[in-house]
Amino acid sequence: MPRRANTPSLSSNLQSIAAQALQLSTEDRAELIAILQAYNDAEAEAHLTEVEREQRKEEALNRRGIRGGSGSFEDKIINGYGPYRYLRYWYGRTHKSVYLGKVKE
Fold first, then answer.
1. Whether the predicted model's global pTM rises above the 0.70 cut
2. From edge to edge, which strands make up the β-sheet containing 94-102?
3. What is the DSSP string of 16-31?
4. pLDDT tens across 71-91, in order?
């Protein structure tokens, strides 16, 4: 009996998301990738020290050209309610955002 390679399988949630992503247009898939990359960048940024954050800000200000990928979280108070978290990111030349939900305290 042949042995099957020990490859980890995707979780059912990830399989479902991957199947849905295949139904997207090429342009929508590219933007989804930008959103996921921005989320990873924003998550990593949240764990930086103040000095590291300032260094990154300085590097970003010195860059030129079309931005892409880098993202940040923004918490907003709206009409006294919230805070509500948004993921802000650049896609091509457009600054976009995705609502992530109310921040859990």
1. no
2. 71-78, 81-91, 94-102
3. HHHHHHHTS-HHHHHH
4. 889 999 999 999 999 999 988
